[in-house]
Amino acid sequence: MDVTNVPAANREESDHPAQVTTALVSDGVSSEFDGNTVRSVEVTFRPGERTKFHTHAGVQVLYVTEGEGIVATRNGEREVSEGDLIVFEPDEEHWHGNTRNADSPFSHLAFMAEPDGSEVTALEEP
C-alpha cells in the first residue's frame, strides 16, 4: 500500500502537449506493475480552457470534483458536473475542459492505466 497526500495548493500550470491552454494540474501519483503504469492527477480548467483531441494507449477515467464542463469524442459532446464519472476506452479520440463562457473552474480527477512507456497522443484542437 502507498498513501500519498497531494495538497491542492501544489497545482501548477501545465504545458502538456494535449492542452490547448495552461490548465492547473496537481503533482499526482504513479505506480508501475505487470507492464502497466497507473497514474492520477487533478486537473482544473479555468473558464475557456480545454484539451486538444487526444488518445491514451490505455483506459482513462475522469471523476468530476467541481463545476461544470464538457467531455467529447468524435461522436459528440456531453455536459458533465460534480459527481459524474467518465470512462474513455483505449485509443478513443476525445477532449475535455471548461465551457468558453464559464464563470467558475471545472475540475476533475484523471486516472490512467496504460502500458509502461506509452504517452498521450495529442491531435488537433476541437
From TrEMBL:
CDD domains: cupin_HNL-like. It comes from the Archaea. SUPFAM superfamilies: RmlC-like cupins (SSF51182). InterPro entries: Cupin_2, HNL-like_cupin, RmlC-like_jellyroll, RmlC_Cupin_sf. Gene3D superfamilies: Jelly Rolls. Pfam families: Cupin_2. Residues 42-101 form the Cupin type-2 domain. PANTHER family: BLL4564 PROTEIN, RIBD C-TERMINAL DOMAIN CONTAINING PROTEIN. This is Cupin type-2 domain-containing protein.
